[in-house]
What we know:
Shape: globular
Number of helices: 5
Low-confidence stretches: 1-25, 416-473
Strand order of the largest sheet: 14-15-16-17-24-23-22-21
Structural class: mainly beta
Strand content: over 45%
Mean pLDDT: 78
Number of domains: 5
Radius of gyration: 30 Å
Helix content: under 10%
Amino acid sequence: MKKKWLVVIGVxxxxxxxxxxxxxxxxxxxxxxxxxxxxxxxPQIINGRTMVPVRWIAEALGADIQWDGQNxxxxxxxxxxxxxxxxxxxxxxxxxxxxGMYDGFILEAKGERKYFDWKNVTNPTYAPQxxxxxxxxxxxxxxxxxxxxxxxxxxxxxxxxxxxPGDFTEIDVEDTDDIVKQHINTKIESDGDDIAIQIITGSExxxxxxxxxxxxxxxDNVVFGNSYCYKVxxxxxxxxxxxxxxxxxxxxxxxxxxVFDNGKYRAKRIQFINQDESDKTxxxxxxxxxxxxxxxxxxxxxxxxxxxKWEGFNPGSLQNxxxxxxxxxxxxRHPQWSAQNxxxxxxxxxxxxxxxxxxxxxxxxxxxxxxxxxxxxxxSSYVFAxxxxxxxxxxxxxxxxxxxxNSNPLxxxxxxxSEKDEIGTQxxxxxxxxxxxxxxxxxxxxxxxxxxQSGLRACxxxxxxxxxxxxxx
Length: 473
């Protein structure tokens, strides 16, 4: 019996595919959205029909293709989108993936689609950002696409595209190189034991002195272009261009707001922000309950607090087992954090002094990292610590958070009004049965502790050899 071959196509063809014959050499070239596709099996004309290899078409459109041998079927799955914006009815589909980069995108908005030769890293942390705002003040929203073209330690570059959603007409945006060339003058000079860094923006001049020993290598001049990013704030497009003076140190940033002028978005209100000066007038988060404060840059004003908990597990146990210790985890979140543009939080783990000692003695572990949390500070009741590998995914803003934490921002507070039971407590003795992990082995230990007169809290510490057990009902 003759076999039947079934091609199951579950992909919405977002663009038109054209196959054209080149009569000079009688070969057929295959183009997808104006991009020539090279195939291992050339297209052929059979009985007046142009036959093309389906795999190359599907993969060029970013679709996943699979062979189902049991059913003799080729299955092409619908292409996935990497960014969406419901209010604009917009989705962004990657065209193809090459060496860790999305190469080309198909933009869909309000049912219309168009291919663009754009690029973005494939790391989902830096997925393309879509905005739908009236940034040219004409009472009509524009579609703004922000792409991350490169990222790494001390390196972050983005690309910006502004389009009218109806016909996808793209509006020019003054790029960062032109902003620096036309509006910024800088120089770095030796001044005795110091380095003098001068930055001039229009009529404003800033000179910053740093000790030569602050860095082993100083650039001959201020470098721009290694790190910059775009933001949309209150219907205004903002660009921040970091000013680099050593391989590892940024002295500050150029910040400019764009205005629509003669058919193009041009940078206006250009200013230099000295990183050292901005850190002198911080926003302060103060936690009365546990007794600490944390200084933040002014740009963090309007932060939010996310409350969670950390969990500790028996040594050698899996992380999905029952926890034996737990405590508060407070994360300070940047005001520009959003579901579409997630930024690095500042996480703070809170331990009692006893819990911290148990952790240092490896009586329990937290997470799978080979190293434990690092201490940020302590008062008479609590230890405040940073989780290990808290920034392992390198989200947006992780470098700024590293800089904040390196400036010793956490200050312990005492006598904050939190509950203390030293006065009016009574000493009690309690007995505990310890099985040491084996219910057949039982030992009884006595311990003294204290309980408040209200009976709301009791704390006992049982000690045997190097083992400590804390019970906090």
